[in-house]
Automatic annotation (TrEMBL):
One Pfam assignment: Dpy-30
InterPro entries: Dpy-30_motif (IPR007858), NDK-like_dom (IPR034907), NDK-like_dom_sf (IPR036850), NDK_H5 (IPR012410), Nucleoside_diP_kinase (IPR001564)
Segments forming domain Nucleoside diphosphate kinase-like: 12-150
Family statement: Belongs to the NDK family.
SUPFAM superfamilies: Nucleoside diphosphate kinase, NDK
Complexes and interactors: Component of the axonemal radial spoke complex 1 (RS1), at least composed of spoke head proteins RSPH1, RSPH3, RSPH9 and the cilia-specific component RSPH4A or sperm-specific component RSPH6A, spoke stalk proteins RSPH14, DNAJB13, DYDC1, ROPN1L and NME5, and the anchor protein IQUB. Interacts with IQUB.
Domain of life: Eukaryota
Gene coding for it: Nme5
Protein name: Nucleoside diphosphate kinase homolog 5
Any one cellular-component term (Gene Ontology): cilium
Any single GO BP term: negative regulation of oxidative stress-induced intrinsic apoptotic signaling pathway
GO MF assignments: hydrolase activity; nucleoside diphosphate kinase activity
Length: 212
């Protein structure tokens, strides 16, 4: 059964969200709104970009009249970068943000984040990726170490857990009950590390006798 069943392919979109320097003090409030809107925050960091880094991040805006002001604004203080995940994350996050111009957002989308936290067209409080491809590029820019792999969700996640996680965990818990260690949490953690079915394995170790 295990040999016949392929690994489930699970696709949940990710998008990049930035809390810009002038509203960083509203970080907790904004994160709460994000979570209550059905997103998962799977990566987060606070950082301050140099003007050169801002120029690289907004390279597609290079040459536009507002570009110098944009890079100056985005490098004026620390910002919060987050990777958000959910079904159709890019479009849902753009919808939650509202129009880029905060003045227009207050007229047309008064409950959007930019209407609430933004000031004008430039200082609009938050950033969101425009497309899936731009999200991938921007996430790699802000989180160079991130691995963009599919995130399990729904029935496919349950299938994955049943096939690849639960058997090992069940075996570990059974061994734990038999062993009855003084520190069960540490014992189980060590057991799972030792019996991890996905850890790298050496194909063949050449002994000293074989080498001779």
């Amino acid at each position: 059964m295990q040999m016949l069943m392929p690994k489930p392919q699970i696709f949940v979109e990710r998008t990049l969200a930035l809390i810009k320097p002038d509203v960083v003090d509203k970080e907790e409030e904004i994160e709460d709104l994000i979570l209550r809107s059905g997103f998962l925050i799977i990566q987060k960091r606070k950082l301050q970009l140099s003007p050169e880094q801002c120029s690289n991040f907004y390279a597609d805006q290079y040459g536009k009249v507002f570009f110098p002001n944009l890079t100056a604004y985005m490098s004026s203080g620390p910002l919060v970068a987050m990777v958000l995940a959910r079904h159709c994350a890019v479009s849902y996050w753009k919808e939650l943000l509202g129009p880029p111009n905060s003045i227009r957002a207050r007229r047309t989308h008064p409950h959007s984040l930019r209407a609430i936290y933004g000031t004008d067209d430039l200082r609009n409080g938050l950033h969101g990726s425009l497309s899936i491809s731009s999200a991938e590029r921007e996430i790699r820019f802000m989180f160079p170490e991130v691995i963009l792999e599919p995130i399990p969700a729904g029935q496919r996640a349950r299938d994955y857990l049943n096939l690849y996680v639960k058997p090992t965990l069940l075996a570990g818990l059974t061994a734990l009950c038999k062993e009855k260690p003084a520190d069960p949490m540490t014992w189980l953690a060590d057991w799972l590390v030792e019996h991890n079915p996905n850890k790298p394995r050496l194909q063949h170790q050449i002994t000293e006798e074989e080498h001779q």
